[in-house]
Design goal:
five-stranded antiparallel beta sheet, alpha+beta
C-alpha cells in the first residue's frame, strides 16, 4: 500500500470533478484498509473511504485528510443461496456471479454503477426494491481497529440511507441471501430492468441527484419546471433525464451545486416540495 500526498480526486469519481486530497491510499485488502486508518489516526487527520465515487460530489478545494480508495475486488464466496463479497467488488461483477450460479432476487441492481460498499452505504435500488432487502450480514471495521460482524438491523436502513453515512465504520464485506431460480427467469427479468434504465443519460454524472419524494418522481418535477438542458458553465441538467446533471467537460463542483440549489429553490417556490439530495457532498472537512 502506498500513501500519496496531494492527489487529485477528479479521476476517482464518476462526475470527474474534485480537488486534491492531502493524502490518498488505494487499498486492495482488509489489512491495507486497517493500515490506512492507523496512518490517519497517528497523524490525527480525518479519513473517509470511497469506492468508485459514483454517488458523490467532491469539493473543488478537495479534502483535508486521507481518502481511502477501496479496490479489493476479487473476494467472492458462494454457499447455496448466500453470496459473500468484498466491499470493493463492482456491482456489475456481483451480478455476473449471481447469474452464473442461477441465483436471483438481485436484478434490480442492474445498471447501477459503483461497488458493493457504496450500494450498501446508500441502500441502492429502484422503486420498492433496495439492497437492504437482500443483505444478510456484513463485516465492518470500527474506528478502534476492531472488526465486527453485524446483521442488517445494525444499519438502520432508510430510503437511500444507512447509519454508515454518519459514522466512521468501514464496510469490509457483505453477505447477501438470494433465491435459487431457473435459468430462464434471469434473462426475462434482466430485459425488464434494462428497459427501465434505458432513459438514463450517458456521460460524466453521479447518478440521480435527488431522492424521489413520496409518490412522485424528482425527474418529472424538474422537467415540469422547464429546467431540462439548463447549464452553469460546463455542468448541464440532462436533456434525457432531468434528475441527472452531466459534466460536459471541465465542470466544477460549484457549477453543479449552483444547478442543484436552483432546482431546490424553484421546486419549493412552485410546489412547496423540499427535494432532498441523493448524492453526497465531500467537503474539505468531510461529508455533508
Amino acid at each position: 500500500m502506498k500513501i500519496v500526498k496531494n492527489k487529485s480526486l477528479c479521476n476517482y469519481t464518476s462526475f470527474r470533478i474534485g480537488g486534491e486530497a492531502d493524502y490518498f491510499a488505494e487499498v486492495n485488502s482488509n489489512g491495507d484498509i486497517l493500515k490506512a486508518v492507523n496512518f490517519a489516526q497517528k497523524k490525527n487527520i480525518p479519513y473517509v473511504a470511497i469506492g468508485n465515487g459514483s454517488n458523490i460530489l467532491v469539493n473543488d478545494k478537495g479534502y483535508r485528510g486521507l481518502i481511502i480508495k477501496i479496490s479489493n475486488i476479487n473476494c467472492i464466496n458462494i454457499e447455496k443461496d448466500k453470496i459473500t463479497c468484498s466491499a470493493g467488488l463492482p456491482l456489475s461483477k456481483l451480478l455476473q456471479e449471481v447469474k452464473n450460479n442461477n441465483l436471483g432476487d438481485i436484478e434490480f441492481l442492474i445498471g447501477i454503477p459503483g461497488t458493493v460498499g457504496g450500494a450498501v452505504v446508500g441502500n441502492a435500488g429502484m422503486k420498492n426494491k433496495h439492497i437492504s432487502n437482500i443483505l444478510y450480514k456484513a463485516e465492518l471495521l470500527k474506528s478502534n481497529g476492531k472488526i465486527i460482524e453485524v446483521d442488517k438491523s445494525y444499519f438502520g436502513f432508510g430510503y437511500r440511507e444507512s447509519n454508515l453515512k454518519n459514522n466512521k465504520d468501514i464496510l469490509l464485506e457483505a453477505t447477501f441471501k438470494l433465491k435459487k431460480i431457473s435459468k430462464k427467469i434471469p434473462d426475462k427479468i434482466t430485459k425488464a430492468v434494462i428497459k427501465n434504465r434505458v432513459n438514463q443519460p450517458i456521460g460524466y454524472s453521479a447518478g440521480s441527484i435527488f431522492k424521489n419524494p413520496k409518490s412522485m418522481f424528482a425527474g418529472k418535477i424538474i422537467e415540469d419546471l422547464g429546467m431540462k438542458g439548463k447549464k452553469k458553465n460546463n455542468a448541464q441538467i440532462s436533456q434525457i433525464h432531468a434528475n441527472f446533471i452531466i459534466n460536459l467537460g471541465g465542470a466544477k463542483a460549484a457549477d453543479v451545486k449552483y444547478l442543484i440549489n436552483q432546482i431546490k429553490r424553484k421546486t419549493m417556490n412552485k410546489y412547496g416540495i423540499h427535494l432532498e439530495r441523493e448524492i453526497r457532498y465531500l467537503e474539505e472537512r468531510g461529508w455533508r
